[in-house]
Amino acid sequence: MTDHNTRFRPARPEDRDALVRILHRCWDAAFAPNLTPEATERYRAGRIAESFVETEGAAIIVAETGGAVAGLTHVEDDLVTAMQVDPDRWGLGFGRGLLHVAERRIAKAGHAAARLEVDDFNRRAQALYRAAGYVETGRRPDTEYGSGTMTIQMRRSLAATLRPWRPQDRALGLALFDSNVPRFFAPQERQDFTDFIDDLPGPYFVLEDAAGQAVGCGGYAAAEGDASVAVLCWGMVRGDRHRGGLGTVLLTGRLDRIAADPAFRSAAIETTQHSRGFFARHGFVQTRQVPDGFAPGMDLVEMTLELDAYRMSRRG
């Protein structure tokens, strides 16, 4: 898994050699074994990797960890044109992180969906994209390398939606909880969550991605003793889908519903120091912190959001 020291940033001139090296290593590991020797000769002689890095420059986004470049991505309009991770770091989450960064760029440019292409022999990459919600839209023969293989075209809507919780969602809710232990929830909280979903105090929702996969859940309820406060309850995104914007969809989807009710004047959340920054970026202000309030090493952090300010921001 990528760690907190991983950051995603535009490529710099001094990254050139590292980027070219990653592209060459990925070719040798994933492409050369499935293509003809002539294709590899053309790739090297044509300086394809070098030309790409020199031409695209700062349009390339890199994943950096521990001061080293671990991978890269690049987009044009709604198309992810490059997604490469150093083979030594395969399976550690860098591909997912880079894909999420690429999708955020595509969404920010105003596109409703992201597209990409992957070779039919590259099953590792296909698994990554399918797990992220991409679906196949077509195939075409490879004309670039004359390999006789097929290029798979894939697409994912960048929209995610909330739907009401159903009693039959109990198992998937517990699976979502388990995917966030122990980073965001303590194991001993599982029974509390189970009791909660078995006797919901207010509206609760499942977050589904464009492929219809359940990738999160969360709800809210009026605070005991103060019906003007909406308390956000048990919000979570599946552990392998963090940092892809889904948390924001889950949060704003609930806040929009809360804000539509004029009886609510503020929203409140009990979270931990690990999620405090996320809520602060959305306007929540910390009011109290209890060290080890949930479990050893997991502080209880109370935060509030004034809904009048939120309502104004959504109108603007």
Write a compact overview of the structure shown.
By secondary structure, this protein is α+β, with helices and mostly antiparallel strands.
Strand order of the largest sheet: 1-2-3-4-5-7-6
The largest sheet, given as strand count, sense and whether it forms a barrel, is: 7 strands, mixed
Q: How many strand segments?
A: 14
Helix content: 25-40%
Number of helices: 10
In sequence order, what are the helices and strands, one letter per element? Answer: EHHHEEEHEHEEEHHEEEHEHEEH
- What is the radius of gyration computed over CA atoms, rounded to a whole number of angstroms? 22 Å
Q: Which strand-content bin applies to the residues?
A: 25-35%
Assembly state (oligomeric): single chain
Shape: elongated
Point out poorly predicted stretches. Answer: none
Global mean pLDDT:
92
Distance, first to last CA: 38 Å
- Secondary-structure-based class equals alpha+beta
Q: What does this entry look like structurally?
A:
The chain is α+β, with helices and mostly antiparallel strands and 316 residues long. Helices cover 33% and strands 33% of the residues. Strand 2 (61-65) and strand 3 form a beta hairpin.
